[in-house]
Amino acid sequence: MSESTDSRSMPTPDHLLHTGAEHPVDPEDLVMASGRTPTPELIEKARQDLQKYGRIAVERLLP
């Protein structure tokens, strides 16, 4: 048998990996990064976290 050439079975190159802190993060993105469904209450909490911690707020979820 030959080896699989399916790109899903290969590791992601380092230059494609990022946590998001180097890009703008919306409150909805922050809620979804936590694994939860965005609700008005969670979006407001995420908005407050972004104001308090800035872009590093996502690093608190995805170190």
**Average pLDDT, all residues:** 80
The share of residues in helices is 40-55%
Distance between the termini: 39 Å
What proportion strand? under 5%
CA-based gyration radius: 16 Å
Sequence of secondary-structure elements: HHH
Number of helices: 3
Please state the oligomeric state of the protein chains shown. Answer: single chain
| Low-pLDDT runs | none
How many strands appear in the DSSP assignment?
0
Biggest beta sheet summary: none
Q: How would you sum up the global shape?
A: globular
Derived structural class:
mainly alpha
Write the layout of secondary structure elements.
Blueprint: H1 27-33, H2 40-53, H3 57-61
Describe the 3D structure:
The structure is a single chain. This protein is an all-alpha fold. The protein has three helices and no strands. The protein has helices at about 25-35, 40-55, 55-60. Helix 1 (about 25-35) crosses helix 2 (about 40-55). It is globular. The N and C termini lie far apart (about 40 Å). The model has no long low-confidence stretch (mean pLDDT about 80).
